[in-house]
Amino acid sequence: KRHLISAADLTRDDAVRILDTAEEMARVADRPIKKLPTLRGRTVVNLFFEDSTRTRISFEAAEKRLSADVINFSAKGSSVSKGESLKDTAQTLEAMGVDAVVIRHSASGAPYRLATSGWIDAAVINAGDGTHQHPTQALLDAFTMRRRLIGRDAGIGQDLSGKRITIVGDVLHSRVARSNVDLLHTLGAEVTLVAPPTLLPVGVDHWPCEVAYDLDSTLPKSDAVMMLRVQRERMNAAFFPTEREYSRRYGLDGERMAKMPEHAIVMHPGPMVRGMEITAEVADSERCTVVEQVANGVSIRMAVLYLLLGGNEPAVTHARTTEE
Ligand code: CP
């Protein structure tokens, strides 16, 4: 494959290969010098038209660990603010000889347009587009689940068959939820969405998952509970329950977390709104993997870049580090 646009484009074998490669990349992070020469001489542009902390920083860390030349582009402060189009921006990058473009955009479909337009020759990686997809987030979430629920070594070659994953909250605006439902289904997990009816998208009954409205009865049957951020910035206030009502019915606090099985984990893609969808007590508990997810994001993004751009380079475990 040349691009990574949607989690739905990945087969089970593609996804397991990325997760396994990410485990190899994570071993690099355990070394004193955390660099591989794999992408030396290749140029990657991080093209961010929308705000980001985790995704932008972890792509940059992944690119640098693979020795790529990195160009960071933020729409704020660029000629986009003067009205320059995506096409002209892309062609400007193409003229500079770019090998891969990591793009985040508020418009659903922007990465697909970039990959299929013929404007550029580079590999395109979707770092989140509108309410559509965020495939590397779903991959890092699956990686975190596999490690925590199966084990770091025991998980190699495995999918998530039989694992029960509950995704809670603002599904309507969530590219994280869409990507996770697609990928988790491909990996054999059973997914349940729990959300207020006003925060569920039209057509959700055709998604490969269950829908429930009672969080308390779903928690005891969950191996992982993924809390979503309430995306006020994309929301028509008329459709939103009050903050207090939302927290009461869909927020995760210590009392609710106690209803989960002992082995079950709490996940959140970040950024979290503490006190709204998750209390500080839960966010800071040992069962919450939010910081682990960020660290795993670097390994996943290294794996994706390596598999898309590494070509015929040797497998990572046999590659020489820059210290050798
Ligand atoms: N999870 C996630 O995409 O976070 P950022 O918006 O900070 O990149």
Automatic annotation (TrEMBL):
<feature type="binding site">
    <location>
        <position position="229"/>
    </location>
    <ligand>
        <name>L-aspartate</name>
    </ligand>
</feature>
<feature type="binding site">
    <location>
        <position position="270"/>
    </location>
    <ligand>
        <name>carbamoyl phosphate</name>
    </ligand>
</feature>
<feature type="binding site">
    <location>
        <position position="137"/>
    </location>
    <ligand>
        <name>carbamoyl phosphate</name>
    </ligand>
</feature>
<keyword id="KW-0808">Transferase</keyword>
<feature type="binding site">
    <location>
        <position position="54"/>
    </location>
    <ligand>
        <name>carbamoyl phosphate</name>
    </ligand>
</feature>
<dbReference type="InterPro" id="IPR006132">
    <property type="entry name" value="Asp/Orn_carbamoyltranf_P-bd"/>
</dbReference>
<dbReference type="GO" id="GO:0016597">
    <property type="term" value="F:amino acid binding"/>
</dbReference>
<comment type="function">
    <text>Catalyzes the condensation of carbamoyl phosphate and aspartate to form carbamoyl aspartate and inorganic phosphate, the committed step in the de novo pyrimidine nucleotide biosynthesis pathway.</text>
</comment>
<feature type="binding site">
    <location>
        <position position="104"/>
    </location>
    <ligand>
        <name>carbamoyl phosphate</name>
    </ligand>
</feature>
<dbReference type="Pfam" id="PF02729">
    <property type="entry name" value="OTCace_N"/>
</dbReference>
<dbReference type="GO" id="GO:0005829">
    <property type="term" value="C:cytosol"/>
</dbReference>
<dbReference type="InterPro" id="IPR002082">
    <property type="entry name" value="Asp_carbamoyltransf"/>
</dbReference>
<feature type="binding site">
    <location>
        <position position="55"/>
    </location>
    <ligand>
        <name>carbamoyl phosphate</name>
    </ligand>
</feature>
<dbReference type="GO" id="GO:0004070">
    <property type="term" value="F:aspartate carbamoyltransferase activity"/>
</dbReference>
<feature type="domain" description="Aspartate/ornithine carbamoyltransferase carbamoyl-P binding">
    <location>
        <begin position="2"/>
        <end position="146"/>
    </location>
</feature>
<dbReference type="InterPro" id="IPR006131">
    <property type="entry name" value="Asp_carbamoyltransf_Asp/Orn-bd"/>
</dbReference>
<dbReference type="GO" id="GO:0044205">
    <property type="term" value="P:'de novo' UMP biosynthetic process"/>
</dbReference>
<dbReference type="GO" id="GO:0006207">
    <property type="term" value="P:'de novo' pyrimidine nucleobase biosynthetic process"/>
</dbReference>
<comment type="subunit">
    <text>Heterododecamer (2C3:3R2) of six catalytic PyrB chains organized as two trimers (C3), and six regulatory PyrI chains organized as three dimers (R2).</text>
</comment>
<comment type="pathway">
    <text>Pyrimidine metabolism; UMP biosynthesis via de novo pathway; (S)-dihydroorotate from bicarbonate: step 2/3.</text>
</comment>
<keyword id="KW-0665">Pyrimidine biosynthesis</keyword>
<dbReference type="GO" id="GO:0006520">
    <property type="term" value="P:amino acid metabolic process"/>
</dbReference>
<dbReference type="InterPro" id="IPR036901">
    <property type="entry name" value="Asp/Orn_carbamoylTrfase_sf"/>
</dbReference>
<feature type="domain" description="Aspartate/ornithine carbamoyltransferase Asp/Orn-binding">
    <location>
        <begin position="162"/>
        <end position="308"/>
    </location>
</feature>
<feature type="binding site">
    <location>
        <position position="175"/>
    </location>
    <ligand>
        <name>L-aspartate</name>
    </ligand>
</feature>
<dbReference type="Pfam" id="PF00185">
    <property type="entry name" value="OTCace"/>
</dbReference>
<protein>
    <recommendedName>
        <fullName>Aspartate carbamoyltransferase</fullName>
        <ecNumber>2.1.3.2</ecNumber>
    </recommendedName>
</protein>
<dbReference type="InterPro" id="IPR006130">
    <property type="entry name" value="Asp/Orn_carbamoylTrfase"/>
</dbReference>
<comment type="similarity">
    <text>Belongs to the aspartate/ornithine carbamoyltransferase superfamily. ATCase family.</text>
</comment>
<feature type="binding site">
    <location>
        <position position="82"/>
    </location>
    <ligand>
        <name>L-aspartate</name>
    </ligand>
</feature>
<feature type="binding site">
    <location>
        <position position="134"/>
    </location>
    <ligand>
        <name>carbamoyl phosphate</name>
    </ligand>
</feature>
<feature type="binding site">
    <location>
        <position position="271"/>
    </location>
    <ligand>
        <name>carbamoyl phosphate</name>
    </ligand>
</feature>
